[in-house]
Known about the structure:
Blueprint: E1 2-3, E2 10-11, H1 14-34, H2 40-46, H3 48-51, H4 57-65, H5 76-98, E3 102-103, E4 106-107, H6 109-113, H7 115-134, H8 138-160, H9 168-194, H10 199-226, H11 229-232, H12 238-241, H13 247-259, H14 262-271, H15 278-289, H16 292-311, H17 319-334
Amino acid sequence: MTVVGPFGLSVRDQALETDVQAGLAAVEAGLLEATKSEVPFITEAAQHLVKAGGKRFRPLLVMLASRFGDPYAPGIVPSAVVVELTHLATLYHDDVMDEADVRRGVASANARWGNSVAVLTGDFLFARASHILADLGPEAVRIQAEAFERLVTGQILETAGPRDGRDPVAHYLDVIAGKTGSLIAVSGRFGALMSGADESVVDILTQYGERLGTAFQLADDVLDIASDSHESGKTPGTDLREGIPTLPVLRLREMAAAGGDPADLELVGLLDGDLTDDARHAEVLARLRVHPALEQARRDTVRYAQDARAMLAPLPDCAAKAALEELCDAVVHRAG
């Protein structure tokens, strides 16, 4: 039993493991090729996060979804490169917005070269993804365009915040469905579509990806509070410091408003203060790590992962289906 892909996913079928490893290697080569430029500095900046590694979660999902059709179809590897390039581009932009210093265990592009270079490098990656996409046909272009619109809408909604009277948790779940779920849904969709799988299978794997993507982001929210930088590859409490209302914080506010517990209200007060202050930030992080709100966020993660797993029920039993089910378990394990 060997380990493949993110979170130590183990594939128990030798043929599937061999094909997945070969597919991911081809994606890696495609990423390096797609991020080359005639300008050496652009190549260095564009390959900065590619070479830093990463889970390659989205390409893995493309590979597994393709097993329900022809897994050797020519569009599969390029479509996996497209979704990963798109994801990498958003990371460059996210780090500028979050003023992050670390990404994937290395200095973020904005910390190394400044915000302008980071934003423009993200734009360069979007352009390269579009170039590859054009060869995959108009339907693929439309699918990616719709997903990108949802992704950007999610980011705008996060920046704008919930409208008056809207439940902040419901608003946040809409945000991450757009920001994260949309592209992971496309990963499942592209893998099935490019392989020529039945339309019903394409729909199942799209919906699976949407739910898994939400669980994936919720697990990230938990990690931002609960992990150290070795686990997550970025500075703990980054979202907290930037005032980004992730699910554990929203659940805390919900509990404080409903129960009126003085300790909860005090913690909310600290959250509303200046979290660029290292001592205050460390205190809030320590208290959140032992607060029931964090456990509630974990339960929310489990629920979405279980929903994703349930979507797979109509698919025929096979090694790929078992691996997709294990991805759900792996996301839950990642959240602790």
